Amino acid sequence: MFDPHNPLQQYLARLMPSSQLTLRYVLQDAADRLGFADMDISDVPWHQLQPGHIGSLVAALRDDGYAPNTSSLYVNAVRGVLNEGWRLGLIDHEHLLRMRSVKAAAGTRLSQGRNLKRTLIRQLMEVCDGDPRPQGRRDAAVIALLYGSGMRKSESVNLDLAQVDFAERCLQVTGKGNKQLLKYAPAWAFERLEAWLTLRRSQLPAGVGDDSFLFNRIRRGSHITRERVTKHAIYYIARTRGAEVGIKIMPHDFRRSFITRVIEEHDLSTAQKLAHHTNIQTTASYDVRDDNERRRAVDRFEM
Question: Among 61, 14, 10, which residue's Cα sits nearest to residue 34?
């Protein structure tokens, strides 16, 4: 039952559904590391934590080899709960400031992402075209929108048909921070989407059930259900289709490749706008051009 006086429940309630599962896992792991392994995270006395608790959590994550950005995720999640504790009057502002003064592990890691070239995207489309099942057209549409617009997998999962403007080739998505954003995709991506929707209409009786969302789950036997596809299914699509062309692909690789390509063909500022990043440094971190391209750039500096 939802408790309006519980800081953790208040914090999670402010998140998008796609983020709640991730942050709940992060906070459960943080609680376990802080000595509350036998407690439900809703019962953990988060407001009683001291700066030393956050420091020990950061140290434990560092000792276990966690990347700095993961450490930041943990610290920011705990801070989010503490902010709610302050709003509820469970801690005073001075204590909140002391907790905020403890920083996550500093540093960065080289990107592990992959830059998916045009030839590889064509191969993925060919693999999907060769699949006679409904999964073929659906997966092609999913990949086309992820690569063609740079949207996140969670954004593609939550897409509804009413959010798609075929005439303007744009999609209204709900991004991080519950922000409504407009994403644009090329004509070929919308052609793939049209092909999937045409197939779906031919196999699902009109007026029966919910057809409001864009991508459906498909069960064994190639049965298109009236259930919305999940983030796990997007992950499975990327990994399965990637394996068919001999490449390990993660869903976020499509977004990385989109941003990298915009940087290559236009500039960093345009990429920032299309990625909807607040900080241009975040956009720059998505540049996953390979080492050969970087070497060629350096080789142009002749004496």
Answer: 61
